[in-house]
Amino acid sequence: MTLPARRIAARAEAQRLLAHFAAQGAEEVEARVLQPAEELLDLYGEDIRARAFVTQDPLRGEVMLRPDFTVPVVRMHMEAGRDPARYAYAGEVFRRQEAEDESRPSEYLQAGFELFGGRDPAEADAEVFATLASAIPDLHLRAAMGDIGLILAAVDGLSTTAPRKAALRRHVWRPRRFRALLDRYAGRTPLPEGRAALLAAADPFADAGPEIGVRTRGEIEARLGQLRDEALAPPLPAGEVTLIDALLSLAAPLPEALDTLRGLEQDAPGLGPALYRLERRVEALERRGVAVAEVAFEGSFGRTTLEYYDGFVFGLFAAARPDLPPVATGGRYDALTRVLGRGRVVPAVGGVIRPELVVQLRGAA
Amino acid sequence: MTLRLGLPSKGRLMEDAFAWFAARGISLGRAGGEREYAARSDWEHLEPVLLSAGEIPRELEAGRIHLGVTGSDLVREKVARWEERVEELAPMGFGPADVVIAVPRFWVDVETLDDLDAACAAFRRAHGHRLRIATKYHRLTRDFLRAQGVADYLLVDSQGATEGVVRGETAEAISDITSTGETLRANGLKVLSDGLIHASQATLFRSRRAPWGEEERAALENLRARLGL
């Protein structure tokens, strides 16, 4: 197939997916290509500059070529949405690929389905997954799932201080810092040189330089107080670190993973509610005809993506083409609605399919 | 056919580069007067081209010069996936300087990146915006902080006098190049103990994208032998 023909096919596939989502009750929505950068920077931090195209509008300031539709769709829903609401969209997204493989496109189509509100999160999760999977049954994709909610529950269940839990929660999506914090809280990392002396000093500012900058003496004193509290806090019990490790390294077919998680819950009752939600989701998936025995559950799935997922996460992959990115991805992002809704939370779950990959895989078959 | 060699067009860096080649039996020098950016070589296969050190990475990346002398920090900052586009032929041992993260010495609670990350989180809660780090090394700094899992900071551009931004209250910390640390200290700043982003020095690079025909490859082999590489 020549390139233009493949592009025509991808556009047709995007329209077909839109029609499929519309048949599930979704309303078609649009988003501007140029999005205000500030909101996205606030959500994702500087990291997004390496993954999205930032440019300058002389009047509007920094703008970004939309790296996904989720944020504009959430914003639109929070301003004038019904409950429940289903949305569908299709269009190009733009991603810088400098950290990835150069052969990956920096501009590609996404067709998406998002579900806001509703009373039963397990049903909503299953509906979104089944809607995406049933749109491309001919590709026989491998499904992988995870649950960020389980990781957050495991952190909340640690027998340690609230500041430590807050720091770990903040870094669930940054595995390296999360690991460094766990090691420190477990007492496996030595204190920085001079730290003990500083905390014991009568005047910690004795050798300090000039008082310059916006960060005040009061802020530094507050942190010294936290460091003193931190030094007194007992180390995390080794068993609890082992539990987090077991959860993060879990990789098994979904039914086996459920058994493993039930075993972990014996030692960590804090996992209970999140595990119950996962079980309800699996039941809902089964009712919709999803072959859950063939789904791979991965404890760390979704921890390094751009998105803001905080619960159910999933991907659909071409098993014979491990070199390709996932054909479909999605998940639950209630926390994103809290940030964009300025305190108001709407349960939200959604996912996208990449039409170019669908066409490429069909062409190869 | 000659190899085009990009050299820094002025100052200490240019003099040191001339001296480095001279010590290896290749005499390079400026042609014409003080104000003329032209250079000569006593070896017919090498054509020196005087360029601003900051432009040499771009010329190497584009393949408009075969070889170039510039700081290893500049290549890493200006060329995405630089290893695929240029090759480090030889570290040259002059122009050493470190790209580092520095914060006010007054921040007695911040010695490591772990501390900086915690300070970023608290700063954002207290001030309603992210802690600003001033730099001209956007790519190096962002890649470093991302790999280290530091969050809730904002990079602000600073093309000069970066050590002064904290006092001027346009940023809270900096990521900058320093050779002795003297300017940092004079401006009330200190380097984080694990804040070394890159130890830079002048380096001879080879462009992978320049035209490498048989003659150019033969000339490069000859040059490698002369330089003992």
UniProtKB/TrEMBL annotation, chain A:
MF terms (GO), sorted A to Z: glycosyltransferase activity
Keywords from the UniProt entry: Glycosyltransferase, Transferase
Entries under SUPFAM superfamilies matching the protein: Class II aaRS and biotin synthetases
InterPro entries (alphabetical): aa-tRNA-synth_II/BPL/LPL, HisRS-like_core, HisRS/HisZ
Highest taxon of the lineage: Bacteria
Class II Histidinyl-tRNA synthetase (HisRS)-like catalytic core domain residues: 3-174, 236-353
PANTHER family: HISTIDINE--TRNA LIGASE, MITOCHONDRIAL-RELATED, HISTIDYL-TRNA SYNTHETASE
Name this protein carries in UniProt: ATP phosphoribosyltransferase regulatory subunit
Lineage: Bacteria, Pseudomonadati, Pseudomonadota, Alphaproteobacteria, Rhodobacterales
From TrEMBL, chain B:
A Pfam family this chain is assigned to: HisG
Start and end residues of each ATP phosphoribosyltransferase catalytic domain: 53-226
Record-listed E.C. numbers: 2.4.2.17
Record carries keyword Amino-acid biosynthesis: yes
Alphabetized UniProt keyword annotations: Amino-acid biosynthesis, Glycosyltransferase, Histidine biosynthesis, Transferase
Catalytic activity from the UniProt record: 1-(5-phospho-beta-D-ribosyl)-ATP + diphosphate = 5-phospho-alpha-D-ribose 1-diphosphate + ATP
Pathway: Amino-acid biosynthesis; L-histidine biosynthesis; L-histidine from 5-phospho-alpha-D-ribose 1-diphosphate: step 1/9
GO terms, molecular function: ATP phosphoribosyltransferase activity
Segments crossing the lipid bilayer: none
EC category name: transferase
Keyword Ion transport (UniProt): no
PANTHER family: ATP PHOSPHORIBOSYLTRANSFERASE, ATP PHOSPHORIBOSYLTRANSFERASE ATP-PRTASE
Function: Catalyzes the condensation of ATP and 5-phosphoribose 1-diphosphate to form N'-(5'-phosphoribosyl)-ATP (PR-ATP). Has a crucial role in the pathway because the rate of histidine biosynthesis seems to be controlled primarily by regulation of HisG enzymatic activity.
Listed name of the protein: ATP phosphoribosyltransferase
Organism: Rubellimicrobium aerolatum
